[in-house]
Design brief:
Blueprint: H1 2-6, H2 11-14, E1 29-31, H3 37-41, E2 46-51, E3 57-61, H4 64-92, H5 94-99, H6 101-115, E4 119-123, E5 126-130, H7 132-146, H8 150-162, H9 170-182, H10 186-198, H11 206-218, H12 222-232, H13 237-245
Antiparallel strand pairs: 1-2, 2-3, 4-5
């Protein structure tokens, strides 16, 4: 998780400045290991890097990382100054916010009274106490998922996996995420890879987890690249061999059985 947070702090990468992959022109690159002492001795002034987007390994200037650090430091200073100005403006507006607090509180009370008492959401997995608004959103989400909306399928799967606004049902959660992944949705393929990796609603299978994380990575889902690399470090030689050879052709959502 820290790696996925740090990538958003790499301002040079986000704006496309500095080290770039010669194959895909991507800027999300990291240090790689030398293949041999011969390679290291014959690459004066260079060092190996690997692209997180296409996994291509290449040699680039040994100062490439230092240049990126300088760019990020400069951008960080400018960002800090911007935050300082924003905080100063925010403090100036506190008095105005306080003056309108009473009116806002009255409006919030009025809205709460019109929402109504909690209702009970009936699902195939059981009953959950939710507000009327939550029940309406949950019903719309289910209808959208049943109509083939991949985003709604994924959200429904996550809600069922966590028990958010619905009774927890990991098996039905896995089925909805599988349907969403079958449409080619990158987020859904990433989530299905996590389900197989952790055994959520499906039999734990590191090889299938690798396949789905690879598909998500091929669809430019950057978190999938990092999670696939972490998974590989935990896999033995034989499971990794199976994962690389495993073929899982994507099926159309209509060909899969929908959860009841």
């Amino acid at each position: 998780m820290p790696s996925s947070i740090l990538k958003y702090l790499d301002i040079a990468r986000l704006v496309g400045i500095g080290l770039k992959c010669p194959v895909c022109n991507g800027t999300d690159c990291r240090h790689s290991r030398w293949h041999s002492k011969t390679e290291k001795l014959g690459s004066d002034g260079l060092r190996p890097y690997r692209c997180n987007d296409c996994t291509h390994r290449f040699l680039a200037s040994n100062n490439a990382s230092a240049e990126r650090i300088m760019l990020n430091v400069t951008a960080g200073v400018l960002l800090g100054f911007g935050v300082f100005v924003a905080v100063d403006l925010w403090l100036d507006g506190i008095d105005e916010a306080k003056s309108g607090h009473v009116g806002l509180a009255s409006t919030a009370h009025s809205d709460a009274s019109t929402t109504g008492a909690p209702t009970r959401l009936m699902t195939a997995g059981g009953v959950a106490d939710v507000s009327k608004d939550q029940a309406a959103r949950a019903q719309k989400q289910l209808e959208a998922a049943e109509n083939g909306d991949a985003g709604a399928m994924l959200e429904l799967g996550r809600d069922l996996a966590t028990g958010n606004n619905r009774p927890k049902d990991v098996e039905r959660a896995a089925k909805w995420v599988q349907l969403a992944a079958a449409t080619g949705n990158p987020e859904a393929m990433l989530e299905l890879g996590r389900f197989y990796r952790d055994g959520v609603g499906v039999t734990q299978d590191s090889a299938r987890a690798y396949v789905w994380l690879s598909r998500a990575a091929a669809a430019k889902q950057t978190d999938a690249v990092l999670e696939r690399e972490a998974l590989v470090r935990t896999m033995g030689e034989e499971p990794l061999k199976v994962a690389l050879e495993l073929s899982m052709p994507t099926q159309p959502a209509a060909a899969l059985v929908r959860p009841k």
